[in-house]
């Protein structure tokens, strides 16, 4: 059969679009990776310094406060880093009225969520001995949570304008790191780290917020719209806050059970692994808005994107997990220094998290959420969070930091196992790789 010129032109156009589509996605991922690499330089430079200057007890106290602060961030963000990004990505380009309405709702919801964290922080000040004895850690940790939680990066990510916001946040981290070397000299200065991080983040968030409101119409926060947005985003919030029980809140939970020194051993090892996990974040951020948009415009393209996500994130996480397991003694010696040898077996156990979380990121963030499977995903994460906390109170008194690491790995494996079962039930397979259920999943969302 002879092809018409239109067919040939269409084929050329389709091929060209496909190349552009993939090259732009790769460009976004590479640019975000560069920004995250800049942000990663900060902990890899400051952790060795802080671990040595603060010593295990002071370092553990800092990590304890940061863990609590990061969980408060999850409450204030309320999952809008995902639901907000998805919402913006599905608004037609140029529809400023819909975009303004969405921004007003999300900003109002975040302010309401912020007010919910205040009684939690006050309660922690009086109920948690480490905060009662060191109130500056709680005050500056709350300040960081407020600034980080109010970040409008979801607005830019949803429009696939990810590079500038990522570099702004990385720049804030660099400024804070410079202050660490200048102002943190003894263990009693640990709270200054939180203060510097809060100030650096506030500068980046203020700039991004002003930038956002230069592009849309500014409106006063609307409590009614805020409560409505909180209700609509409650599914993702449950997922985000529950995941914090076995991700961000581990050091805080450990500090409630044992000594700051044990928190320092576990937290030092966890920081190394979390740095590796954060390498996956820019790739995930690049895929998520594209998959969410393709779900409503081009289902076949969404399937191809998911396959690419499996390949990129899966392979990278596996390689990093193997490397961190094999080089655990060297990593602990280089990044934490003398006195942290107890962290070596903890780091080896936590290394298994890298491939587990890599697979969970693809199945959860790139597949389940865009397709509307929020309920089963949230139930899995909530169950895993409860398991993590329960196991921590059982294992930590006997095993210390290894007990906390064991409970975290089990919780993460539980989530991934449930997602694998859900993926299989929807008709997906890994060999040969087949991603199905897109049409039916979206129709139910």
How would you describe this protein?
The chain has helices spanning 5-77, 80-89, 96-127, 129-133, 135-149, 153-158, 163-183, 190-215, 223-232, 234-243, 250-257, 260-297, 299-326, 328-335, 343-350, 353-368, 374-399, 401-425, 438-444, and strands spanning 429-430, 433-434. With 445 residues, it is an all-alpha fold. The chain has one domain (20-444). It has a two-stranded antiparallel sheet. A hairpin with a 2-residue loop joins strand 1 (429-430) and strand 2. Helix 7 packs antiparallel against helix 8 and helix 16 (353-368) packs parallel to helix 18. The longest helix has 73 residues, at 5-77. The chain is globular and about 55 Å long. It starts with a helix and ends with a helix. The model is unreliable at 1-22 and 438-445 (pLDDT under 50).
How widely separated are the two ends? 42 Å
Number of E-state strands = 2
Number of helices in the DSSP assignment: 19
Shape: globular
Strand content: under 5%
Query: Helix and strand string, N-terminal first?
Result: HHHHHHHHHHHHHHHHHHEEH
- Poorly predicted residue ranges: 1-22, 438-445
Any idea what the radius of gyration is?
22 Å
Which range best describes the helical content: under 10%, 10-25%, 25-40%, 40-55%, 55-70% or over 70%? Answer: over 70%
Briefly note the structural class of the backbone.
mainly alpha
How many structural domains in the coordinates?
1
Q: How many strands, which pairing sense, and closed or not: the largest β-sheet?
A: 2 strands, antiparallel
Average residue-wise pLDDT: 83
Question: Order of strands in the sheet with the most strands?
Answer: 1-2
């Amino acid at each position: 059969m002879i092809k018409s010129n239109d067919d040939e032109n269409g084929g050329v156009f389709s091929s060209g679009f496909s190349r552009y589509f993939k090259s732009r996605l790769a460009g976004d991922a590479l640019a975000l990776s560069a920004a995250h690499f800049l942000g990663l330089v900060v902990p890899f430079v400051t952790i060795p310094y802080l671990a040595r200057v603060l010593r295990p007890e002071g370092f553990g106290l800092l990590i304890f406060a940061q863990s609590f602060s990061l969980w408060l961030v999850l409450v204030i963000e309320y999952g809008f880093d995902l639901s907000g990004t998805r919402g913006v990505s599905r608004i037609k380009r140029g529809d400023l009225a819909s975009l303004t309405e969405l921004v007003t709702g999300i900003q109002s919801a975040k302010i309401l969520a912020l007010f919910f964290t205040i009684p939690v922080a006050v309660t922690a000040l009086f109920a948690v001995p480490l905060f009662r004895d060191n109130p500056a850690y709680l005050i500056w940790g709350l300040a960081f949570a407020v600034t980080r939680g109010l970040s409008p990066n979801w607005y830019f990510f949803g429009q696939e304008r990810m590079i500038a916001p990522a570099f702004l946040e990385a720049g804030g981290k660099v400024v804070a790191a410079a202050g660490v070397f200048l102002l943190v000299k003894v263990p009693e200065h640990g709270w200054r780290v939180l203060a510097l991080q809060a100030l650096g983040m506030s500068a980046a968030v203020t700039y991004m917020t002003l930038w956002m409101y230069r592009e849309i119409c500014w409106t006063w926060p609307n409590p009614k719209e805020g409560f409505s947005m909180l209700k609509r985003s409650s599914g993702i919030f449950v997922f985000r806050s529950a995941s914090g029980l076995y991700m961000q809140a581990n050091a805080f939970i450990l500090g409630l059970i044992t000594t700051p020194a044990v928190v320092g051993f576990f937290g030092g090892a966890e920081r190394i692994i979390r740095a590796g996990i954060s390498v996956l974040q820019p790739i995930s951020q690049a895929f998520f808005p594209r998959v969410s948009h393709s779900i409503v415009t081009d289902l076949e393209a969404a399937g191809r994107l998911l396959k690419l996500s499996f390949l990129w994130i899966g392979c990278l996480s596996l390689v990093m997990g193997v490397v961190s397991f094999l080089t655990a003694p060297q990593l602990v010696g280089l990044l934490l220094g003398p006195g942290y040898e107890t962290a070596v077996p903890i780091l080896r156990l936590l290394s298994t998290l890298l491939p587990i979380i890599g697979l969970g990121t693809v199945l959860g963030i790139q597949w389940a959420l865009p397709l509307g499977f929020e309920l089963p995903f949230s139930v899995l994460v909530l169950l895993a969070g409860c398991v993590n906390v329960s196991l921590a109170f059982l294992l930590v008194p006997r095993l210390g930091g290894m007990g906390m690491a064991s409970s975290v790995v089990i919780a993460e494996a539980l989530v991934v196992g449930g997602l694998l079962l859900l993926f299989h039930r929807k008709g997906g397979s890994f060999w040969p790789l087949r991603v199905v259920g897109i049409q039916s999943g979206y129709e139910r969302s």
